[in-house]
Amino acid sequence: MAKKNALNENxxxxxxxLYKHKWNQTRAYLEVYPDCTLKAAEAASSRxxxxxxxxxxxxxxxxxxEKENIVTREEIVAxxxxxxxxxxxxxxxxxxxxxTKEMVDTGEWQFKENGALKxxxxxxxxxxxxxxxxxxxxxxxxxxxxxxxxxxxx
Length: 154
What we know:
- The chain is mainly α and 154 residues long.
- It has 2 domains: 9-69; 73-122, no CATH class.
- It has helices at 9-20, 25-32, 38-49, 52-69, 73-88, 113-126, 142-150; strands at residues 91-97, 102-110.
- It has a two-stranded antiparallel ribbon with strand order 1-2.
- A hairpin with a 4-residue loop joins strand 1 and strand 2.
- Helix 1 crosses helix 4 (52-69).
- The longest helix has 18 residues, at 52-69.
- The radius of gyration is 31 Å and the shape is flat.
């Protein structure tokens, strides 16, 4: 026997379609009930979302979606460090030797400075190293503020 508060398969499909259609409830409803008219889908989808059990299932799906798809700060920092490290690796410059018919070292080295600099910049922003500092060398008239606070208007 089915639970009284259990969703049927169409209701579950509607909830899943909400994510697929980026919260467009009418489109989600039309996906599940393709023979429905647009006007009827607008009304029925609103009614469906007013049900507590449907909203609870949507919330549960949202939590699952976040756990599976969210990128954490730590992951971003780790990825930026990996890009930085890869870009800063020195690579020997090679050229083709026609006599030996193979690539040989030229004795020069290169690294990918654009990727390295961008990843360093983003890492610096993550830890707030690169913040704009604003200097102010004017005066602030505290007497005006004090008069307003003290209730003296003139």
